[in-house]
Protein: Cupin domain-containing protein
Organism: Saccharothrix mutabilis subsp. mutabilis
Amino acid sequence: MSTLAAKSLESPEETRRFPHGHIDLVTLGGTTAGRAEFEPGWRWSTDVKPIAGTESCQSLHTGYVLSGRMRVRMDDGTEAEAGPGDAVLIEPGHDAWIVGDEKCVMLDFTGLTNYARQ
């Protein structure tokens, strides 16, 4: 049997809020997809770590940056930056923060089931 599903992130099933941002979520089949908005000043280790309870983000992110810039540092010290038009793969074990004074808006298609949830 074939499946076709569509849900709008304009009417999310769930919104998770955290300091300096939020993520709107929909679930399609077994996949949770979301649109995250990170305000200037957001940093995972400051704003989401207290919720997650882990030393670094343990979610796998596969996404696309719509606006703004985000810098990521992996637990091994590797760093990279992503901006508008960039598709990203960020493996578990990282910190991230917003670069500059523009909000970063990102679509994420993996790793959101438990993101920013205790």
Q: What stands out?
A: Residues 24 and 107 are 10 Å apart (CA to CA).
